[in-house]
Amino acid sequence: MSFDAEAKMQFLFALRSKGVTDKAVLNAMESIDRGRFIQGYFTDRAYDDMPLPIACGQTISQPSVVGLMTQALKIGPRDKVLEVGTGSGYQAAILSQLARRVYTVDRHRRLVHAARQVFEALELTNITAFTADGSFGLPDQAPFDRIIVTAAAEDPPGPLLAQLKIGGIMVVPVGQSDAVQSLIRVTRTDSGYEYHEMRPVRFVPLVEGLGKD
Ligand code: SAH
């Protein structure tokens, strides 16, 4: 299957019907072919609105969830964005269309290598991918205008809150890994943090330390 006009139309229709209405986000999702981030058996399902398995027992998120999280970040063209949980690289690729610079980190080296190859092939030169435990953020690159966490934590990790600029926004799924989690939008103000609960979601857990591969 290819991301032809027909596939794009259906893909965008599904996104809109799930509440992804931001024009810039829809344009970004139209310009990045999700099929490039999926290998093997499931390539046929690349344009369906469902999460799919990737290597290392992880998943590429559902497109409408990618769209809603990206939309909630309200990214500006000058923004420096951190993503925790590179996975396939799809979410980072969408962010790269909207932000000045994207840093993405995953605990699995193998996923980071595969994602870098796709970024290179698509000439997405404003993304830098690292293998690291992202719950500590990226102190050398901090602070960030926007932070997106694509794995569920029991609470928003303290180092990530600390690496968010004042006026910055973070989107993070919060809750136990085996239960339904809540997608939370955190805004850093002059005096602290404001929390807004967006919707129930289901993500793989944020895990401590590096993966075996
Ligand atoms: N955003 C991805 C989907 C992410 S799935 C995409 O667009 O495809 C969640 C990812 O979070 C997995 O790849 C997992 O390895 C990663 N992860 C889990 N805990 C982590 C941690 N502490 N630091 C960095 N990455 C982590």
UniProtKB/TrEMBL annotation:
Name of this protein: Protein-L-isoaspartate O-methyltransferase
Compartment annotation: Cytoplasm
GO cellular component: cytoplasm
Family annotation (NCBIfam families): pimt, PRK00312.1
The protein's role, per its UniProt record: Catalyzes the methyl esterification of L-isoaspartyl residues in peptides and proteins that result from spontaneous decomposition of normal L-aspartyl and L-asparaginyl residues. It plays a role in the repair and/or degradation of damaged proteins.
One GO term (biological process): methylation
Leader peptide range in chain numbering: none
Family designation: Belongs to the methyltransferase superfamily. L-isoaspartyl/D-aspartyl protein methyltransferase family.
Catalytic residues (UniProt): 61
Underlying gene: pcm
